[in-house]
Amino acid sequence: MLARFRSRRPTVRRPSRARPGARRPLVALGVALTVALTLGHPGAPAAQDLPPDPDAALIEELVVTASYPGPVFWRVSRGEARVWVLGVPSLAPKRQDWERQRFERYLAASGGVILPFNGLKVRLAGSPAAAVGYLRLRSSRPFEVGRDAGGRARFAQARGRLGQPAERYSVSSPLAAGLMLHADWLEANALTTTDPTKLIRLLAQQGGKPVIQRTYDLGPLLGSLARTPTGVGEACLEAVLEEVEMGPEAIRSASRAWARGDVAGALAAERTWERCIAATPGAQAFDARFKADMAGDIRKALARPGVTLAVVPLRPLLSEGGVLDRLRREGFTVETPEDVRASDLETEADPKDPGS
Fold first, then answer.
1. Cβ–Cβ under 8 Å, residues 189 and 248
2. Of 35, 226, 292, 298, which has the fewest beta carbons less than 10 angstroms from its beta carbon?
3. How far does the chain reach from its first CA to its final CA, in angstroms?
4. Is the pLDDT of residue 160 over 70?
5. What's the average model confidence in pLDDT over 282-293?
6. How far apart are alpha carbons 68 and 62 in whole angstroms?
7. How many CB atoms sit inside 10 A of residue 94's CB?
């Protein structure tokens, strides 16, 4: 058990309901980039000399298995203020079932809910470099046409499994083709980057709880894809093709582990894409900004007495330099799910403290 550590305006966005196959290429690529920055992958890319994964090193003491049913919570506190932090998978089956009794208890006691970014905004009008970069990615012919015979057949087989035509991937970059293919793979297998966050937002709104959730303009990052080295793009494409060929069971298994409180099992299929995507100019800065923003929103909640509920993807939550690590370095008390459970056993009979 871990000893207790001491040490742009948020907005609400609704996710698009359009199917990826119906999106315009620009929006589809923006969605794919959002997915790549947040989802997990079970293995490392094959190419050498890729930047390190910023979430590869986890704080092992925080990776625990719950002794109670359902997903686990960490607790961050200072004085009379506390934030319950629910770590969630970056990628999960749509409408994943999970035990919500503990979550509903904490939600009822909270004065608000902090969520990770969920919407996306791609704005090229104010970013000439992004517009130029996007134009460089577009192609007058399907991506697979430019591959050798083996590569062409493999890509065609992968997109064929997903029911997508060759013309959908009319881009010149292997990275762009891989990201778009992966977004289509998610849709074909009913996997999503928005659950359970989407459900939690709905439950919070139904309960009249204020929701804090940020959005980011991906235009500049989209433009930077054109400057990504070809070798990195090929490595990411290879990783996507392997995942399409392996199927979604590893993701589904990890999601089931999360639902029963097995954090290590939940992380088994959450090896983030950031080792290859970090080579894209601006991607590492985006990752750091996201973690800083999540930690900052929690910090603001802890500036006043009361209870808040926060939802953070597991690897950004538990990694060295991640959200919990940042907060404990600032002197906040961070407790593991085992610490929380022990505290609950001491106080759950006290009706005066429903948020403990």
1. yes
2. 292
3. 19
4. yes
5. 86
6. 16
7. 13
Window from 32-36, 183-187, 264-268, 313-317 with minimum mean pLDDT: 32-36
Q: Are 75 and 340 in contact (CB under 8 A)?
A: yes
- For residue 115, report the phi and psi dihedrals to the nearest 5 degrees: -120, 155
CB 284 within 8 A of CB 332: no
Residue with tokens 């000399």, as numbered in its chain: 49
| Amino acid occupying residue 3 | A
Gap between the Cα atoms of 279 and 294, Å rounded: 23
Burial tier of 148 (Cβ tally within 10 Å: 0-12, 13-18, 19+): exposed
Half-sphere exposure of 79 (CA within 13 A, CB side): 8
Amino acid residing at 263: V
15 band by pLDDT with thresholds 50, 70 and 90: very low
- In this predicted structure, the answer to whether residue 68 has a pLDDT above a threshold of 50 is yes
Q: Which two tokens stand for residue 261?
A: 């409180």
Give dist(CA 215, CA 230) in Å, integer. 29
Report the alpha-carbon distance of residue 341 to residue 289 in Å, rounded. Answer: 31
